[in-house]
Write a structure and sequence with these properties.
This protein is mainly alpha-helical. The protein has one domain. The protein is 70% helix and 4% strand. It has six helices and four strands; from the N terminus they run ββββαααααα. The protein has helices spanning 28-49, 57-77, 85-101, 114-136, 154-197, 199-240; strands at residues 13-15, 18-19, 22-23, 26-27. The strands form two sheets. The chain has a two-stranded antiparallel ribbon. Strands 2-3 form a two-stranded antiparallel sheet. A hairpin with a 2-residue loop joins strand 2 and strand 3 (22-23). The longest helix has 44 residues, at 154-197.
């Protein structure tokens, strides 16, 4: 049987459901998002259920993770950014666990769907615009004018800055989607080769697949970190008007 490395990314309806004319059917991506949410909630409830003076391993891990995210927010957004820590932490852990759970055979990688990463990116970018207008009013539009730009260059620079701004959510979405899709496609190809070549030769691509799977764990953390730190940078730009 021919192995299709892209089969993992295909979505099929599990429960057919329509509400108000919209197709809201349940598929494996939806189930995985629910599982990710439940996993994160259960882990943090377990970590905070019995707070000890000498913390448990789970409590220590939770405190270190949240401390790391808090420092990231304050560094890029200033003290004003503390109010965004719950949002940033939720975003980071959802993406991280979506990446990690997707590495388990039989599970689905939610972040390999462009519509999911694009939704996150658009939410982040719209939030940065809203924050910018809340803090600076229409003066926030000055972000389209680089400091020191002479007046006669404005007709050229403003369109360039608009394109640069619109490229932010696109790059944010595509980076996460492309990295997770590429890694899983390579794993699918290697496992397909291992199955088709048989035991005598198939062990070689299988060994490589194990090595790449270990690399994918690191990439899962890195991509969650990159998405989150860019989120704090964009929100920080909106607060501080750095451009």
């Amino acid at each position: 049987m021919e192995h299709n490395p892209l089969e993992h990314f295909q979505l099929y309806k599990i429960f057919d459901l329509h509400l108000f004319g919209f197709d809201v059917s349940i598929n494996k991506a939806v189930l995985m998002m629910w599982l990710v949410c439940v996993t994160v909630i259960v882990l943090f409830l377990s970590a905070g259920n019995r707070v000890r003076l000498v913390p448990s391993k789970l409590q220590s891990l939770a405190e270190i993770s949240l401390g790391f995210l808090k420092n990231m927010v304050v560094e890029n957004m200033g003290e004003e950014g503390r109010k965004f820590i719950p949002f940033v932490a939720t975003l980071f852990f959802f993406i991280l666990f979506s990446n990690l759970l997707g590495l388990i055979p039989g599970f689905y990688t939610v972040t390999s769907q462009l519509i999911v990463t694009a939704a996150f990116a658009v939410i982040v970018y719209l939030m940065s615009l809203i924050v910018g207008f809340i803090y600076h009013g229409f003066g926030f539009l000055k972000i389209l004018v680089p400091a020191g730009t002479p007046g006669w260059l404005l007709p050229l620079m403003v369109p360039i800055e608009i394109v640069s701004q619109l490229a932010r959510p696109v790059s944010l979405a595509v980076r996460l989607f492309a990295n997770m899709t590429a890694g899983h496609t390579v794993l699918g190809v290697l496992l397909g080769m291992a199955i088709s070549l048989g035991f005598l030769i198939g062990w070689l691509p299988f060994t490589f697949s194990i090595m790449i799977n270990g690399l994918e764990v690191g990439i899962a953390f890195i991509q969650a970190y990159i998405f989150t730190i860019l989120t704090t940078v964009y929100l920080g730009d909106a607060i501080k008007m750095h451009h």
